[in-house]
Amino acid sequence: MIPSLVPLFDARRSELLDGQLVRASDFCKKAIGQRAECLAHYKGLQQKPEGYYQCPFGFTSRSYFLDGQLWIATGIVAFPRFDSKQEREMAKQYPTTKVSRESVEAGISYLRDVEQYRADAIREAGKVLPQAFHELRKLNAAVLQHAEREIGDRGETRGLASIKSAAELMRNNFDILEALSNIEGMRALPSDSTINLFDLAFKLKRVMQERAASRNIGISVNGVRAITRGSQKSFPIVPAVLLENAIKYGTPGTVIYADISVEGNTARLEVTNESTGYIDPARCFDRGTRFSTGVEGGGFGLFLAREIVQCHHGAIRCEASDRTVRMVVELPLVTVVR
Amino acid sequence: MLKSISSLWKKPSLQSFDSLLTRERLIQGGRIVVIDDEEPLLIDELRRVGFAVDHDKTGSDLRNYDNQIYDVAIVDYHGVGGQLGAGQGLDLLKHISRVSPRTRLVAYTSRSLTAAESEFFRLSHVVLPKDMGLGDSLVLIEGELKKSLEKEHLFESLIDKLAVTDGAQRERVQAALVRALSNNNEGQFKEFVSKFAGQAAEKSVEIIIDKLF
């Protein structure tokens, strides 16, 4: 949010914010919590056109809309005045709140300009970033595919395997970003390809084991070759997110278990790790929810995992105890490969 | 006892006629086209493995698609199919899907598509991200090649070409096909299709029947 020069009432949050030049008076700070007519005044402005209004205590309020939301520059005595008795009283008691309507207008105009620049920048980024993103993916593809070619021609070396793993990790991250930026596109993906849960988990173990080793964490994949139907483009994001979280938040010196099992017509993938960090199983799939500030992240991975699992007619849940976090994904089972 | 006797009378499914295809047979028999204005390393990799791959850089000459010669078409979104309309790869995908329903369609892009463009993904049989590893790409393409030769898929393509929408008619065609496959008698099925369609089967239908036997 862009800072205002004078006190500002945020109508959406019913919150009074200090201005950068004029601070909100103690009177206003108290009144907003204690005097019903104060909030009633702001509520009433939501139904009125933009403009100058006097509050019941004599201060000036200037209402305006920005980015589709009502804001009210308030707690000031603005010249030209309403010339009421209460206004004269407030001007005497709170002389630092005296400003001109001209300067209030200049402030609003500045905020509108900044908002316009911001909207233009977002629009421009919407055109440029997908192309930049595409070029990055192409570059990463060249690294991955040439590393594979070298491995095929000359045999696997530690260096080549590391380059390949790094490029595959990068590809996972690109997939996550792309799916987040285009959830509708992700939902439209065909989802009738064969997904072998065990092979997928095992492949991701190979991709992520170096990263896990850097935190002194091991990965163990166990279970049956359960087959389900899904999108080969979007579904791998699910185990990738679960394993990546388990590595990020897991306790060093422990092992992450990826277990694939079946029960009736259900295929189950469980990713279990030890962690001392707090997680709320009910809220962890909400968009933008994070429980740790010490580890990088945006709180989007589990949200996306849930979206993808739901597109695949499945369910995902979190089971957490003091030291263990278990993510359970259940999907319709097609068959089990023996 | 009764159950086991009745199972002897159970009609065989189309799947039961799918012969085990070795990788060598797939490589020898499959025809793939990559429609892409760029030169992806994937084409070279497919050729190194032995697949017959055509590289169509524009998607403007539609004769090969109209003649249904490909088992798998790998279609990029941007820079191809411009002749068909503004939808580029999407229009090309729609065209191939219409004229050659037996061709397995692979949406081949690493771009993030808009909601409107995402029909490109929806109409394809599978999505192959361009930045996928070569090994994984080959596994996916081989899987599609295998599916293109499966009787169930070819039957659906035939139904599409014959414009059969009625459930009972569909069952008649399927029963005739199962009988002809059981007798390994392509001529018997061609005759049925001629009577069914009211005229000699057109070339595009004959191509699918040839693939079925």
Mean pLDDT of chain B: 86
User: Do you know the CATH architecture of the largest domain in chain A?
Assistant: 2-Layer Sandwich
User: How far apart are the first and last residues' alpha carbons of chain B, in Å?
Assistant: 35 Å
Question: What spatial form of chain B do the alpha-carbon principal axes imply?
Answer: globular
- The helix tally of chain B amounts to 11
Please give the largest β-sheet of chain B: 5 strands, parallel
Low-confidence stretches of chain A: none
What is the H level of CATH, i.e. the homologous superfamily of the largest domain in chain A?
Answer: Histidine kinase-like ATPase, C-terminal domain
Rounded mean pLDDT score of chain A: 91
How many helices of chain A? The count is 9
What's the total count of β strands of chain B?
Answer: 5
- According to CATH, the fold-level topology of the largest domain in chain A is Heat Shock Protein 90
Tell me the fraction of residues in β-strands of chain B, as a range. Answer: 5-15%
The figure for the number of domains of chain B is: 2
